[in-house]
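Chapter summary example.
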Amino acid sequence: MPEMLFDRGGQNPFKEILSGKCRVKILIAEDDPALGQQLASILREDYAVDLASDGEKALEYLGLYIYDAVVLDLGLPVMDGLTVLRNLRDDRGKNKTVPVLVLSARSSASDRVDAIDRGADDYVTKPYDMEEVLARIRALIRRSTTHSTTRLTWGVVTLDTKSKRVTWEASLVRLTGKEFKVLEKLMLESDGIVSRKALVEALYDDKDAEEGKGDDSINVFINRLRKKLPSDFIEVVKNVGYRLSPDHNNDPA
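The structure predicted for these 253 residues follows.
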């Protein structure tokens, strides 16, 4: 697997998009180790960042995860950037419409036109000004998140609040309505711990919640989710509640 760089400690300006818990995720495909690491280290202050050093690994990542933006070098080994771009746009997968910023030493007008015709959203030539590149990436993210505000992602599990679909490593996970609501609540509150009371309130109306109805059912729904998702995806915090396992959101496998 390619290298994954991830950091949740930064203050992401787009963190409030989904009830304050949206994870903006960026893929960098760059074969120059110095450039790739430099850009990744800056971006990971605010975003989840995956770094691929060749085109084949970039496509591998694109098949596994959902991204809000892709930064793509054209001169990649194994599979060049234009081929990656063509495969991305021809595919019917989850990243077909992801915004792509091309970073390339190719500076001719024909190179720019070719990349844009193949599906690139922006193009910056090397050597580039880092502040300009960061501004362009932020613009791509704004464009992506404006059209993707129903999507919640934790590691390889994705939940769409609009379509009511859940996928695990791109495979559909079939949930009941209440199982979906439990998982949705946990993913919306992925930065913290969700109490049993909060889960009951998410599942039942105010009257039933006040009377304590449904409290015993929380264990049932959590156990069902553990059978349908990775068994350790949801953690019990004794005497407090539940949370999504941080290990899954940092797992490079």
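To summarize the output: The longest strand covers residues 25-29.
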